[in-house]
Amino acid sequence: MFRPSNFPQTFPDRRRILLNKLDLPRLSIVVTERCTLKCKLCAEYSPYYKPQPHYTLKEVETFLDEIFSIVDEVGDLSFSGGEPLLHQDLWSMIAYASKYSNRINRLLILTNGTILPNRIYLLELQKYYSKIWNKLRFHISDYGPALSANADYLCQLCEELCIDYRRICYHGQDMFHGGWVDYGDHSKKYHTMDEIKAHAIKCAFRKDIFFVASSCRYLSRCNRATYRKYLGILPENTSDIVDIYSNVSLTEKRNQIQRLKEAKFSESCAYCNGLCDDSIRFPPAEQIK
Questions:
Q1: Is pLDDT at 203 greater than 70 in this prediction?
Q2: Which of 26, 133, 137, 236 has the most CB atoms within 10 Å of its CB?
Q3: DSSP SS3 for 119
Q4: How far apart (Å, rounded) are the C-alpha atoms in residues 214 and 29?
Q5: Per residue in 79-108, is it b (16+ CB within 10 Å) or e — as a string?
Q6: pLDDT surpassing 80 at residue 36
Q7: pLDDT, tens digit (0-9, with 9 covering 90-100), for 151-185
């Protein structure tokens, strides 16, 4: 499957020409929009992409090289979707990320508990990539046995192989945060700068510093901005999104990401209900008929 000889072990470190560190507390790489579920209120909008993007191993490897040539460290590096365990090259992607294990705090796999990963692949990862293995963690969104049929088995597998995991309950009486939210229909809801700012400061995606990488190219602070660009609601040159392959200098790319990191609101916030403490909650993972 994958071996240490499959890719180069070093990459030019252009960071050294810069004095100030640039860290991303959380970065989620969307490796596929394909999913085993078709959730009506999917925060990633996976069921609504036509067609659903499915990125190649080479695209993800190239993205990892590029992003780590720009930023210094990533706290939590997540592989997400869609359902990342659907991707046939997921474990090779994780193995490749081991190049940067000394610059990653944790490596997360965000899964919906529908698929049980191949034990053989996990054992190979453990054997050949111990540095990244020790940082591996599964985040399992559990929607109950009718949908997340393999959640119990995945938890058992993690315990057997001493893999850290978090099981997030989205069914029954004690649901995480009371359920899901509806981010809205993408119509403009806030019109003045004061309205947008007042709304944005209540949203969890602004209170926390979270980045998502879409198309193995674009960085944004939330999936909603990316999808609104896909719909054409946000312009191509929106400041909500940084193109890491743009022709600007390394210094300017770092400055763009730093500005995105520090931003208290964005253009996309005007079109969004947000994830707020007072947001109306809905039953999670309601399936599209």
A1: yes
A2: 133
A3: helix
A4: 7
A5: bbbbbbbbbebbbbbbbbbbbbbebbebbb
A6: yes
A7: 999 999 999 999 999 999 999 999 999 999 999 99
Q: Are strands 218-220 and 241-243 parallel, antiparallel or unpaired?
A: antiparallel
CA atoms within 13 A on the CB side of 195: 11
Residue 218 pairs with which residues in a beta bridge? 214, 243
Buried-exposed string 149-169: b where 16+ CB fall within 10 A, e elsewhere: ebbeebbebbeeeebebebbb
Contact 93, 61 (CB under 8 A): yes
Residues in Cβ contact with 232 at an 8 Å cutoff, skipping those fewer than 6 apart: none
Neighbouring C-beta atoms of residue 46, cutoff 10 Å:
22
CA-nearest of 193, 110, 122, 106 to 157 is 122
Domains of the chain with CATH codes? 20-271 (3.20.20)
Q: pLDDT > 70: what percent of the chain?
A: 93
Return d(Cα 205, Cα 263) in angstroms, integer.
11
Beta-carbon-side half-sphere exposure of residue 111 (alpha carbons within 13 Å): 26
Query: Kindly report the CA angle at 219 between 78 and 97, in degrees rounded to 5?
Result: 35
0.85 cut: is pTM over it?
yes
> Among candidates 212, 269, 249, which has minimal Cα distance to 77?
212
Position 207 scores a pLDDT of 87
Dig out the tokens for 143 from the structure. Answer: 């929607």
Quick one: tokens of 193? 């700068």
